[in-house]
Specification:
Helix content: 40-55%
Shape: globular
Number of strands: 6
Oligomer: single chain
Number of helices: 9
Length: 273
């Protein structure tokens, strides 16, 4: 029985993690709490002052995962749009290119630098985009993003990502490939994540010790203001504590929207994988 118990223990741990971090579970438990919380109703519909926001979802989920975030922002006068990166399972370089393109378009449309809000993998992709085109960014928010070591996430998630990479070797398009884990792509992206964020760009890294996907210590970006909440990984987009922490910061960033300078010509591109 001890042998059987020893074999079952990792399986039970994986099941426990899956149940606690499943997106559906986060929605069922988190959304009602958020909608009842005082942070949800908009008291000032002009707070956002037309500030543009680009939302970057996490690995394996689409933009629907940040739909409530978009509604919350829109009710306050911000102008949120999605990053259009699908389910965020593609090559890092390709996804950062798409994010930068959306940043450029939205900055032009809203008349100034935009705010980036990314969850999980979306957060560190947003950081890479910020380093590449800092003149397009007013502020950066990373929710449960293991910026210090993306491959240090929960082993089950990394295993799934590696499985997708193997599928790419059979010609399945739009997925990570092996180079993202052990080649130049991995090395260059890991190096880019160590580049300091410009001091002119305020950044917030939200982390939780209850996170079962991204170890909290890996989410504490040394160049951002680190904010601790009590939330699951997938539940951060539905957690009132997250919105309570972000609201005053976003308000400050939006105040400067009218005085933001026009987008400058694109700087020479740095290759970020």
């Amino acid at each position: 029985m001890r042998i059987l118990g020893g074999r079952l223990q990792p399986l039970m741990a994986a099941v426990d993690t899956a149940l606690s971090e499943h997106t559906l579970h986060a929605i069922i438990t988190g959304v009602p709490s958020l909608l009842r919380h005082p942070v949800w109703p908009a008291t000032d519909p002009d707070q956002g002052n037309g500030q543009g926001v680009v939302l970057v979802p996490g690995f394996g989920v689409g933009e629907y995962s940040l739909a409530l975030t978009a509604s919350w922002l829109r009710a306050r006068g911000y102008k949120p749009i999605g990053a259009r990166i699908g389910f965020n399972v593609g090559c890092t370089t390709t996804l950062v290119d798409r994010i930068v393109q959306r940043m450029t378009e939205h900055a032009d449309a809203t008349g100034g630098p935009i705010v980036l809000i990314g969850q999980s993998r979306g957060g560190w992709l947003a950081r890479l985009a910020t380093v590449r085109r800092p003149e397009l960014v007013r502020g950066l928010v990373m929710l449960g993003s293991p910026v210090l070591d993306p491959l240090g996430a929960n082993p089950s998630v990394v295993k799934l990502a590696r499985s997708l990479a193997r599928l790419s070797t059979y010609g399945v398009p739009g997925l990570l490939d092996q180079d993202c884990f052990e080649g130049d792509c991995y090395r260059e992206s890991a190096e880019a994540l160590t580049i300091p964020l410009p001091s002119s760009i305020p950044a917030v890294a939200v982390y939780s010790r209850l996170d079962r996907i991204a170890p909290w210590k890996l989410c504490r970006d040394p160049y951002a203001r680190c904010v601790e909440v009590r939330s699951s990984h997938t539940g951060m987009a539905f957690d009132p504590e997250v919105y309570t922490a972000l609201e005053p910061r976003l308000r400050r960033w939006a105040r400067n929207h009218d005085t933001a300078k026009a987008v400058v010509p694109e700087l020479p591109r740095q290759r970020v994988s």
